[in-house]
Amino acid sequence: MIRGHGLYRYDTVNSSSHELGQDIVTLLIGTPLLITGIVLSLKGTLRGQLLLTGVLGYFLYTYASMCFLTAFNPFFLVYVALFSLSLFGFILSMKNLDVDEVASHIQDGFPRRAIATYFIIVAVFLTLAWLGLVASPSLTWTPPNGLESAITMVIQALDLGILVPTACITASLLIKKQAWGYALSPP
Question: Which long-range contacts (CB under 8 A, 24 or more apart) does 84-92 make?
């Protein structure tokens, strides 16, 4: 609940509304996709392995955020466990991904340039949005707007440190028709 009640009562109203929304998305979309990815991956399908890898990436980002951003609550150890499981699951899933097999399934009509353009737009948008928020305060040693009661900008750090470089690398690999570019792209 929001406004001083429930699991997120020690978070700001803004943060708790995001956390509650994240919980709903994870429960209704993330968890069924995770189960589907596990089942299909255990059957040995490439789609299942790609789905599982992508969903584990989602869980990794989500529970890294929950570990480092959410005020301490009774689910802290659950967040840590989900963060750790998704981190190592993601690493193992990426390690086991046969990128050459992924590339061999790409057909001539694959919208490689369109997807690369999308990743570039996402990278530029996130960079402009977050640097616009944190660049000036970083230079003047003043707290940025949106810091609320937190001590750092977790989402901005994850986006600028992981998502933006991944989007740029994926776009570059797609443009060069490299196998990892296809593996890191949506099917």
Answer: 85/59, 86/56, 86/57, 86/59, 86/60, 86/62, 87/60, 89/56, 89/59, 90/53, 90/56, 90/57, 90/59, 90/60
